[in-house]
Amino acid sequence: MKKLPISKAVFREVIEENCCYVDKTKYVKMLEEHPSKYLFISRPRRFGKSLFLDTLRAAYAGEKELFKGLYLENNWDWSKKYPIISIDWGNGTATTKEELLTSMSATLRRSAYLNKVELTEDAPI
Fold first, then answer.
1. In 3-state terms, the chain is what percent helix, strand and coil (to 5)?
2. pLDDT value at position 75?
3. CA-closest candidate to residue 40, choices 14, 62, 31
4. What is the DSSP string of 1-20?
5. Residue 124: what pLDDT?
């Protein structure tokens, strides 16, 4: 029997630990085919918003091995990979504008390094 992915928001963990996963990768393809300027994901707490965003990240990062047996496995252009910037606003608290800017800048620098992208600005704002 498969485990339930309780408190798991990392797609790789859900797949590699063979947890139950309801395949929502069709929605990733739909977002690709029908882009919108803004995307608002409104669901109650604990309804998989973070897991879906991480699934989206994995698809755009080209992590094909995670999608075996899922809709996107054969319905995605795996030859394309995109740099990913992931910002988790739940980590820590900034009490000043300077702390917030420092945190944002560090996150962008880390993402740029991981994606081998050169930054042309020092501060995000």
1. 45, 0, 55
2. 97
3. 31
4. -PBP-TT---HHHHHHTTB-
5. 56
The residues with which 3 forms a beta bridge, in sequence order, are: 19
Longest dimension (CA), the chain: 51
Q: What mean pLDDT do residues 7-26 have?
A: 92
Distance of alpha carbon 26 from alpha carbon 75, whole angstroms: 9
**C-alpha to C-alpha distance for 123 and 121, rounded to whole angstroms:** 6
- Of 12, 7, 9, nearest to 68 by C-alpha is 12
Nearest one of 63, 68, 65, 67 to 82, comparing CA atoms: 63
- 52 near 10, Cβ under 8 Å? no
Nearest to 66 by CA among 31, 7, 5, 21: 21
Model confidence pLDDT, tens digit, residues 18-69: 999 999 999 999 999 998 888 888 888 778 888 999 999 999 999 999 999 9
Measured distance CA(102)–CA(108) in Å, rounded: 10
pLDDT of residue 74: 97
Q: What is the pTM of this model?
A: 0.79
3-state secondary structure of 24: coil
